[in-house]
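## tool: complex_structure
## caller: assistant
## args:
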Amino acid sequence: MMDSIPIVALTGQVSTKLIGTDAFQEADTFGITRSATKHNYLVKNVKDLPAVIHEAFYIAASGRPGPVLVDVTKDVFMGNAHYEPVNAIHLPGYKVYTEGHTGQIRRAAQMMLEAERPMVYAGGGIVLGNAHEELRALVELIDAPTVCTLMGLGGLPSDHPNFISMPGMHGSYAANMAMSGADLLIALGVRFDDRVTGRLAAFAPHAKIIHVDIDPAEISKNRNADLPIVGDLKRVLPKLCANIQEIRNETGNPERSSLKRWWKQVRDWKEEHPLKPVFSTSEIKPQHLMAEIDRISQGKAIITTDVGQHQMWAAQLIRYNAPRLWINSGGLGSMGFGLPSAIGAQFANPDQLVFSIVGDGGFQMSLPELATLMNYGLPVKIIVMNNGYLGMVRQWQELFYNNRLCSVTLDSFPEPAQLAGAYGFKGRTVEHPSELADALQEAIEYNGPYLLNVRVTPTENVYPMVPAGGAINEMVLGPVQPTPVA
Amino acid sequence: MVQIISLLMENKAGALMRVTGLLTARGYNIDSLTVARTLDPGLSRMTIAVEIEPQGRRQLIKQMNKLINVLQATDLTDGPSVTREMVLMRVRAAQESRTAILKEAEIFGARVVDSTIEGFALEATGDIEKLDEFINIMQSYGEIEVTRSGAVAVSLETKKLRLSPPIPCGEAMMAEDKNGVV
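## result:
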């Protein structure tokens, strides 16, 4: 729901006559799922079913996408009816705004040309709206530095010269400094999530906000939009570009020294504190693991993750040169998401390399999926970044709770060769940096699923980090060194 | 501050739950809620009185408008509107105060709907504050039992109702797609 993923779920309900009697395996699915869906249905008459199914798919995929659940009673599942073709569905209260307001688009174009320090803040809406090419065109046209949020990674290729990185709590120094320094923030398909904005009052304090989103309820929800546009990015962005061209044709296209200065500043920030992997000769640093996967992927592999430290490093250090390569649970941050979503991704892209990068905690929440993996013979490469902890929770306990660790230690990880072997595929553990590249190569070359358990530095922390409630330009860039005693 | 929201919605099972669910999810307590069908039996009109801090109001209306079953959600708090409530009341009255009670009821425009030796049943409509006052006064005559309807409101402005047209699907959609390509 929070990540706006279109899913239609068909669930089974007890017979219509038994509803409300506490029948065997009865649950109020319709009521329970109300708050977790965009819309839901309870079908009690087989005649209603065709229209409901059409509506469910339409609602799930249109506008701001989202999950739709259809609860079907047993008698409807078993019932017979004459099929009447459904030629139209009636949803008088369901409004989808796609085109964007012409006057607002014109004003937005004007603002973009007048800005001295413009910045594009692109989110999951770019990916969901298939507007990556349109985004690229706009970014190149106005030559603005661009950040992609966790859900928007791949919206602009990571190798694109205008791409800065991810912003927010674990975003790069350059991304956060640039957001804080910009005088115009062009927010495209984003929801100003607290993990991006940090302390709202201090977020992008000098910037005017242009906010384009298909969901009117996102506009001015967290941060007031100076110029809101409600519409489909795929339709609005080309209109924006056309308007910018028009204005330029009318006024000429003067060389912009302010933009050059702005780019120099952003590049300086990038060089000052780049996101770069950490290496060690004695142990595998988690960043080293991500760098190796990046080297293999070259921005082309599908990467799915759970939530936690591995997710942040994978977002920081692996390149995504196309949309829908990066699949993770952003809004809810659910553990155990990596493997099942990798299964889905491999189903949809049988010939593509799919890595499921998971933590040792989250992986053990999705063990039943190993059977599914094997059932369908899907060659997903499971990379367990094993630090023996629920790492992100441990990091918070260390940094914000005086290192009073509680319920974060994971001592018993199954022996991977045996675990994978039990299902009929291959697995192994690597502990030494020198073995890592070969082990990954072996995993990729293996014909079938592979479980690679990578023992990494147990207490490595994710940096940069904006402490919860902090302003995003007040990052902690690395481990705080104890001050030497004089 | 109490906000009055008027909703036009489809008369469907679960529609009420979606609206109240939005409010409970945000921890808002509903002051009153009335719902009844409109001229079109497929639609219901709902009036909700709910305590909300001012900055949450716009967001809530937007969220309500997003519900598939809601055709229109309007904030009546600031715009010109009329709000009324109805109260049904039983008053236990001693013989000597019966006349005074009837006099008082007349002042408030209340009607007697039942009269027994023990007392009266009264019906009154009016704005919320006036009914508060009426109830207060009646309490001074003795034991009362009160049922209030909750606020019903109507906007005095005509707001254009925008409805989405039917969406072609199935074979009809395929045909349209083909036309689009040509």
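## assistant note: The longest strand of chain A covers residues 7-13. The radius of gyration of chain A is 25 Å. Handing back to user.
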